């Protein structure tokens, strides 16, 4: 586990770099990055977010001022700062949150969207590691 300093933000606890710093990140819960080399935002990542994240982080609603409907919006982050570290999915709070690696910070929360599978998280990791383009 990586020990991080406490800074809690909004209802998005766990989705920004600042809020990931709320406690321990259990990297054992984070699936490995996919080995696929052809992962794209349009084909692979956006459909995952559309199904599980747009309800709270899309064009109509942006909890914590975070949108995940475009690459630019994801790279901008939310009110608590960045949610991805381009090239380093293991340091990206978005990955920590969708994998449940942050205590009480699993995204999407129960009843708000479909939980992501290990394969989906692996694709997100591969996309971030490849530059999030």
Topology (SSEs and partners):
Elements (H helix, E strand, L loop, with lengths): L16 H4 L20 H12 L1 H4 L13 H6 L16 H7 L18 H12 L4
Helix pairs in contact: 2-6
Order of helices and strands: HHHHHH
How confident overall, as mean pLDDT? 85
Helical content (DSSP H or I, runs of 4+)? 25-40%
Strand portion:
under 5%
The number of E-state strands comes to 0
Question: Sheet with the most strands?
Answer: none
Number of helices: 6
Low-confidence residue ranges = 1-22
- N- and C-termini, Cα separation: 29 Å
Could you say which structural class the secondary elements and strand pairing correspond to? mainly alpha
Shape: globular
Alpha carbon gyration radius: 13 Å
Structure keywords:
133 residues, disordered N terminus, 34% helix, globular
Describe this structure in a few short sentences:
The chain has 133 residues and is an all-alpha fold.
Provide structural commentary.
- The structure is a single chain.
- Helix content is 34%, strand content 0%.
- The chain contains 6 helices and no strands.
């Amino acid at each position: 586990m990586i020990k991080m300093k406490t800074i809690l933000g909004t209802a998005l606890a766990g989705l920004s770099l600042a809020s990931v710093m709320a406690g321990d990140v259990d990297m054992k819960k984070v699936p490995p990055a996919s080995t696929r080399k052809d992962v794209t935002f349009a084909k692979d990542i956006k459909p995952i977010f559309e199904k599980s994240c747009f309800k709270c982080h899309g064009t109509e609603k942006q909890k914590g001022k975070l949108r995940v409907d475009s690459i630019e919006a994801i790279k901008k982050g939310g009110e608590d700062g960045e949610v991805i570290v381009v090239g380093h999915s293991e340091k990206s709070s978005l990955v920590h949150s969708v994998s449940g690696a942050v205590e009480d910070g699993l995204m999407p929360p129960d009843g708000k969207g479909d939980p992501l599978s290990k394969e989906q998280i692996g694709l997100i990791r591969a996309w971030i590691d490849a530059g999030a383009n």
